[in-house]
Amino acid sequence: MATLKGSVLSSVFGFVCIVLFSNICFAADPTISYEFHISYITASPLGVPQWVIAVNGKFPGPRINATTNNNVLVNVFNKLDENLLITWPGIQLRRDSWQDGVLGTNCPIPPKWNWTYDFQVKDQIGSFFYFPSINFQRAAGGFGSFVINNRPVISIPFAQPDGDIEIFIGDWYIRNHTALRTSLSKTYRLRVHNVGVSTSLNFRIQSHNILLAETEGHYTMQQNYTDFDIHVGQSYSFLLTTDQNASTDYYIVASARFVNESIWQRVTGVAVLHYSNSKGPATGPLPDPPNDVFDKTRSMNQALSVRQNGSASGARPNPQGSFHYGSINITDTYVIRSLPLVTIGGSRRATLNGISFLNPKTPMRLADKHKLKGVYKLDFPNRPLNRPPRRDISVINGTYKGFMEIIFHNNDTIMQSFHINGYSGFVVGMDYGNWTEDSRGRYNKWDAISRATIQVYPEAWTAVLISLDNVGVWNIRSENLDRWYLGQETYLRIINPDENGETEFAQPDNVLFCGDLAYLQKEQKHNSAISISREFLRLPLTLLIAFFVFTICS
């Protein structure tokens, strides 16, 4: 038996550290129900007490454990002192963007209120996580694992692991989220999620290979790696065989990537893999990080090596490779460019194609249903335009049942991750330099991995192909929280012109109203629980390199 175990060491540096953290119901499909009470608690992720956002008193929050096609009810009680929304990145919410939990589709849950998310995990499997989507709250916690298991009739494409372990890695700040926004010879399945703010991390285990098996709901060709880059917002499943000598424990390491080396090369999160028959503590130096400071292709080549397992079945009995995406004609192309921060109206803002997104006062699909005009514009440009940057509510007008090509072009100086709610897309290509139409000749049209969170390297591009079959309004955003908070997002609006109630669910009975429809909202009765002020969160700014203390046993 193996145990993942943390121990605490600390060292003062500067600003940040790396932490390892451990509406329709269908009669034939079971329903699982959860209550999430979101509140502040005291925890010590860096070895010193600080206030974090907990779910049901736990940090990280509890796992949502579902099976393909389950109906999921999550009643969220907001015990914070500010508005709240929970989002489910990678969960496609088929026909039901009402449950997406972002400001473009949902009115926020006010303090002391509760609201029930009600959706089906239709035709999906895999490893995901949930988190609070507004007010920079993810930087303070509120996240947890969301696992969708295969139905019993569909086998997984590897032997049943002896254990199932979750690891959350991320850059963690001593400053609270409000201050930031103003400034295991058994085999175990490791579900590793980068829930951080803005930093790509390299994950590795001393003297062990990790066998990649799944990412964000799609089984991969199984390949061994000595280390693996996991970018902000991404989730991976690895198989770890604990077949090494049990004379010592072994280090588990996550270290920063693609950042200022003079500051970050010493910023490392460490935990310990403990064999139950181990004869001593972990020894020796930490496993080396990738030695590619002057080789920018190493990480990209690793990303391109992740291929879809075309013969494995996922949520449905038919093999993943039976959808021949490479032979479908492209109907729309969008080149979406990100740039370094710009100044608009005296404020620093982040943009996509020169537009810094303004969240509408009224959620867009709610505005559609109530025939409100002027809430948003369907004029997001399909190419970067030569004009001054501006703030606007500009949305992509997608074509139902179209096949869209999106090229994320990162002209920023930082590593970026972009997420598409409601969909996963085939990552058919990436390269440094400028994308041109000739770049399509290098696309992988056979076994590209399909995923919802896509990394884009500095001064590089990544191309994604998406089948637009999920009606609704879906968020496209930077997963780097600072860029997202400063406006680097838009929405993809997919409407069936012949809608008859079969391709999109109706507005839920418990919908919250705000903005121009606030007059329709009835007051919610709630208890007299006291919201906690955030003033106590104002702690000294200190950096600790920490080994988060946790234990997970098989």
TrEMBL record:
It comes from the Eukaryota. The lineage of its organism: Eukaryota, Viridiplantae, Streptophyta, Embryophyta, Tracheophyta. GO terms for cellular component: plasma membrane; side of membrane. Keywords: Cell membrane, Copper, Glycoprotein, GPI-anchor, Lipoprotein, Membrane, Metal-binding, Signal. The keyword rRNA-binding does not apply. It is a lipid-anchor; GPI-anchor. It is found in: Cell membrane. Belongs to the multicopper oxidase family. This is Monocopper oxidase-like protein SKU5. Residues 1-27 form the signal peptide.
